[in-house]
Amino acid sequence: MNPVATAATGAAGKRAAFRAGLASGRIQRLPGAFNPLVAALIQELGFEGVYVSGAVLSAELALPDIGLTTLTEVTERGRQIARVTDLPVLIDADTGFGEPMNAARTVSLLEDAGLAGCHLEDQVNPKRCGHLDGKAVVPVAEMVRRVRAAVSARRDPNFVVCARTDARGTEGLAAAIDRAKAYADAGADLIFTEALADAAEFAKFRASVDIPLLANMTEFGKSALLPAAELESLG
Questions:
Q1: What is the maximum alpha-carbon separation in the chain?
Q2: pTM strictly above 0.85
Q3: Alpha-carbon distance 185 to 169, whole Å?
Q4: Which residue from 89, 172, 180, 221 has the least number of CB within 10 angstroms?
Q5: Between 85 and 64, where is the model more confident?
Q6: Is 92 among the catalytic positions?
Q7: Which residue out of 79, 164, 168, 179 is catalytically annotated?
């Protein structure tokens, strides 16, 4: 790492690398970083990308993960992390911080900050951690508007818009799959399959959805912790 701690790769290059990774047929491992130092270590250890978790950012600010962080706080932390790593950085943008128009502005600011992509979820605003009980999701049509607004706001077509569905815990697996298909049709590049129970559920999701899937492996969550090799074999 150079003494100024600035990435040698520009944002456009990192976004292109993220796109290429998603299309490669190989699993992309994005460990979570809550600050620039951790992101630098992730690169040094040879991973394919960096993830900025909303839950971890909330925890570092001594806040519960219930939608209390602001767009300004999330964007600035994302900028700090993206600045120091040559890896693509995917950031948690909660529900887009408001209505579809807010989701569009969120994408613009995150793109300006050098991020490679973000994920938006279909929970009501304010949201709850995806592995907590008591969640509620918006109607499909509302989330479709959220996704379309986000996609239309990006200027770099390689900026990845990931749509997360929390419907598994509230409406069941079949409904979550139907939602994922609708979000893909709305222009999402990647689907975040939050809080699936086990490998069998990931396999059902994979068989039903054509675009890449994100699996959230987090301690103390509702999903079984599956090794990267097993997730890759599931597709």
A1: 51
A2: yes
A3: 22
A4: 172
A5: 85
A6: yes
A7: 164
